[in-house]
Amino acid sequence: MFQNLSPAAVDSILSVAEAFRADGRTHKLDLGVGVYRDAAGNTPVMAAVREAEQQLAAHQPSKSYVGLAGNLRFNRCVEQLVLGQEADASAWVTIQTPGASGALRLVADLIAASRRHAKVWISDPSYVNHAPIMQAAGLAVERYPYLDVATGTLRREAFLEAVAGLGQDDVLLLHGCCHNPSGLDLTLADWQAIATMAQAQGFLPFVDMAYQGFGDGLEQDAAGLRVLAAACPEMLLVYSCSKHFGLYRERTGAAMVKSAQPALVRGKLFELARRSYTMPPDHGAEIVAMIMASDDLRANWQAELEAMRLRMLASRDKLATALAQRGLAADYLRQHKGMFSMLPLSDAAIARLRDEFAIYLVAGGRINLAGLDESRIDELADAVAQVSQV
Ligand code: LMR
Predict the structure, then answer these.
(1) Which pLDDT does position 175 carry in this prediction?
(2) Ligand 1 centroid – CA 194 distance (Å)
(3) Ligand 1: centre distance to CA 9 (Å)
(4) Is the distance from the beta carbon of residue 95 to the nearest atom of ligand 1 less than 6 Å?
(5) Which of 19, 61, 109, 244 is the most buried (most CB within 10 A)?
(6) What does the H/E/C string look like for 165-219?
(7) Delimiting residues of CATH 3.40.640.10 domain(s) in the chain
(8) What is the CATH number of domain 60-294?
């Protein structure tokens, strides 16, 4: 049966995690997979999550099935988080999914079911799983210019020129905030320009929001996508609670679709979900719903999230200073948002960091600043300076 299988593609993030686990060196440093780590190197369960879990364990009345849309209270929370507390979400269909990866696949299947020849445009570079998920649904993928690796800045002119060329068969996939892998975000003026072009040209905006609250704050991070949501009659959105609720393994995400045919869209999403995973896991979604429904838990969660955000900002600043002290210009680290930035390193330099210094980065030079403790910043800067010498 399986003799004709081709070897599996290597995932550049998960393979780094695996190689790191297998490395026996005690001083190894993991800047690969996107998880937040505290000063002790642990990825803690957030205090509000812990408290909600205890309440849930004590009081959950049943483990019976939820419906195809998942946890409805969670879906409403996601709408309020992403669109704003007072926003009118009546034009949106929201369904809970197994993580944002599940949402990406569901939405890709929805696009393919509606317009098989649609082309999905992703940033160059983009999250490593964007293209494979879109292609697995049978969609064509193209890349638009985004990051100038040498300067860490947006290739604005080329980017806007590419968007200006999109039409009704095109889907423009954008990162809501804290761009993965570069940390380079669009300005509000960029979002406004995209909204104007989407209205005039008819392409479909699609936003992946996985790091709300890790950039400038919960509300500020959603400001750009809210410009699109207000202006565009149709839009796609996928949402993750892995990072800002620390619910990674609970696979807690959502797919949102704004359209003039909500009943048709809802029915098709249900059909697609039924055919693959049927219903999403409820645990993480119920935790989020409980936190958002309690003033105390919500305040506690927001305070912890803000502390995480400030710690990442401090790491950015300290690494930029440490690199500058070693003659490497890295002010872009201070301009970027969230967990990730890319160091402009060659493949050979990244391999040397791994082999000689036990420092693990994702191919392309992505580092997870949320995995970097202050006590190791000088060590990282020294190693980067050494491998950067030609
Ligand atoms: C990452 O980019 O490291 C995370 O989003 C983990 C993943 O699923 O790829």
Answers:
(1) 98
(2) 26
(3) 16
(4) no
(5) 244
(6) CCCCCEEEEEECCCCCCCCCCCCHHHHHHHHHHHHHHCCEEEEEECCCCCCCCHH
(7) 60-294
(8) 3.40.640.10
Q: Which atom of ligand 1 is nearest to the CA of 240?
A: 5
Mutate to test the pocket of ligand 1, among 15, 127, 247, 250 (most ligand atoms within 8 A of CB): 127
CB atoms within 10 A of CB 266: 17
Q: Is 13 in the pocket of ligand 1 (CB under 6 A)?
A: yes
**Closest by alpha carbon to 340, among 360, 367, 321, 320?**
367
Choice from 11, 12, 13 to test ligand 1 binding pocket (greatest atom count within 8 A of CB): 13
How many A from CA of 34 to the centre of ligand 1? 5
| Listed residue (130, 85, 83) closest to 108, CA to CA | 130
CATH architecture of 14-45+297-388: Alpha-Beta Complex (3.90)
CATH 3.90.1150.10 boundaries in the chain: 14-45+297-388
Q: What count of Cα atoms within 13 Å lies in the side-chain half-sphere of residue 138?
A: 10
pTM of the model: 0.96
SS3 category, 238: strand
